[in-house]
Amino acid sequence: MKIPGKVRQGRGLNLSSTFSSVWQEIRSTTQAAKRNFNQKLQNLNRKGRERLTIMVIPHSERKSIHFVISYKAISLFLAGIVVLLLLSAVNVLNHSGSVHQLTELKLTNKDFVRQSSKMREEVNSLHDTIQYYYQKIANLYIKLGGDPAKVSKGIGGSDSRNLFVAFQGTPQTDITAESFRIKEDIHNLKISSELSDEIVKMIKKRKSIIKNTPSIWPTKGYVLFPYGQYLSPLTGKEEFNKGLDIGAFPGAEVIATAPGLVYDAGFSPSTGYYIKVSHKFGWKTIYSSLDRVRVKKNERVSKGDIIGYVGKTPENPVYHLHYEVHVGTQALDPFSFLNQIQE
Description:
about 350 residues, 5 helices
């Protein structure tokens, strides 16, 4: 049991002696380096204290001039010159860099001015196009019976003046003028869009009115007796014709001049067979002097549908169609509508 203890003790002594020897080597190396550094520093100081004599000998009989300067001063002087050269080089590089940046800025500015000029031309062209478009839309809206107050909100209107007043407090530059013009164009486009919607509604309404207005000839023929006062060949007296008498071949087709509802159909000795049709918006049409009737009461008819055939009355032996157009209870001249209104 005693032998292992001695072994451990021997190992501890060996480690301690190794560490001590390593430390001694490091210490001796450090001291040697320190001595070498001090020696070099002393040599440098000694060299710096050495002096150099510079003599200037003139060609004349004047006294010679000599300067005594140490190596240390010369070294400081040369070091100062090197520092000045480095600073000068840095300044030159910075200056050349600034000049390069300034040149690039000038080129960029020229490109910006060129692009701005091109953009200004495009904005002006767009402005003219928008004005032309707005004027056309506004004129069409007015011709269709639109409200002029809605048109006045656009170019030259109150809203446009408010936009102009809003820019009065800002410096008037080209950019400000262009901005105002763009805002004005946006405003006019908005008004034009609203007017276009109103125009579409008005056209749809008018199309509906035209579609339901009696506007085609009820049969093929010629005007025998017009609307108004005429001399009756039967009585020999001047009478008032509430409609239009159209001469035609016997049995010629009679068509509905507008879509509607047959509200009456029958026969009377004075008019012969007749058909009465009511239409939208208060229109009514009457077809008489018929030979035959093809539709019945409460039957719906479309524009152009055949509703009867040309005949004559017991009192009038001439084959013809008597055609009347009414708005409410007022009889109108049918000739004013025939082929005058187109869809």
